[in-house]
Amino acid sequence: MAKRIMVQGTMSGAGKSLLCAALCRIFKQDGLRAAPFKSQNMALNSFVTRDGLEMGRAQVVQAQAAGVEPDVRMNPILLKPCSDTGSQVIVNGEIRCQMSAAAYFRYKPQLVPEVLAAYRSLAAGFDVIVIEGAGSPAEINLKSNDIVNMGLAKLVDAPVLLAGDIDRGGVFAQLYGTVALLEPEEQARIGGLVINKFRGDVEILRPGLKMLEDKTGLPVLGVVPWMRLDIDDEDSLAPSLERREAHKPLDAAVIRLPRISNFTDFAALESHPLVGVRYVDRPADLGAPDLLILPGTKSTMDDLLWLRQSGLEAAIQKSAAAGTPVLGVCGGYQMLGRALSDPEGAEGVPGRTLRGLDLLPIDTVFEPQKTRTRKTAAVLAAPFAGARLEGYEIHMGRTEVRGAPFCRLEGGQEDGCASGNVWGTYLHGLFDSGELTAALAGFLCERKGIGAAIAAPVDRRTYLDRQYDLLAEGVRRALDMEAVYRMMER
Question: Which of 20, 24, 82, 330 is catalytic?
Answer without folding.
Answer: 330
